[in-house]
Amino acid sequence: MTNTTNLPENPLLPAPLALPLSLVPSKSYGALMVKLLNKLFAPELADGELDFLNEKIMRVDVVDARLNFSITLRNGVLCAAESNQPHDLSIEGSVYDFLLLATRREDADTLFFNRRLRLGGDTELGLYVKNFLDALELEERIGPFLKMLDGMTSLISRIPALPKPTFKLPIPKLLKRS
Questions:
Q1: Measured in whole angstroms, how far is the alpha carbon of residue 29 from the centre of its chain?
Q2: Between 20 and 30 A from 144 (CA), which of 51, 168, 176, 178?
Q3: pLDDT tens for residues 2-13?
Q4: pLDDT digits over 91-114, tens only?
Q5: Structural domains of the chain, with CATH
Q6: Which residue stretches of 23-138 are H helix?
Q7: Is the CB of residue 30 less than 8 Å from the CB of residue 83?
Q8: Could you tell me the pTM of the whole model?
């Protein structure tokens, strides 16, 4: 069974908006994300629903924002992992695609099967993460925040696609291979 649908074109965050975000060290961003995720997933953490991440490292790359962070689960709590440690699973996508997932405009299967969100590493761990995200019910917990995310998703979807450069930068002779 293939789960391909016509997804809207993938708008990318413009480079001038991504630049300030890319200046934030991944360690700081990771610490912020685990605080947020520990609060958001408190019931699931208490029920052991994230135990599949125990001592496993999951790296998240938001490519157009030039952000990444790594998390793991230790003693029932999500913790930031050093970004230079080898990861068991990586999830990569654009801001827009992660927002589509968070707002439920698209389901995880559609985003993964259409390679809008890409998984790398441990396939079984990736399946656990995907199933966890599919089963997650956040509407009543974060309703107003979800509306804000939905507005951001709409805003980003209206960013016009920037044309790709049609020229190549010259490569100095010193860098050319003979």
A1: 13
A2: 51
A3: 444 566 567 776
A4: 999 988 988 888 888 888 888 888
A5: 15-162 (3.30.1050.10)
A6: 26-40, 42-46, 95-102, 108-113, 123-135
A7: yes
A8: 0.76
Dihedral over Cα of 142, 147, 150, 156: its sign:
negative
**Please, which residues bridge with residue 110 across strands?**
none
Q: Please name every residue paired with 73 in a beta bridge, in sequence order, or none if there are none.
A: 54, 78
Q: Both ends of the chain: CA-CA distance in Å?
A: 48
| Spatial contact of 72 and 79, defined as CB atoms under 8 Å apart | yes
Q: Edge to edge, what strands does the sheet with 77-81 contain?
A: 77-81, 67-74, 58-62, 89-93, 118-121
Q: Whose structure tokens read 């790398």? A: 120
> 59 has which bridge partners?
70, 90
- Distance, CA of 51 to CA of 12 (rounded, Å): 33
Half-sphere exposure of 21 (CA within 13 A, CB side): 17
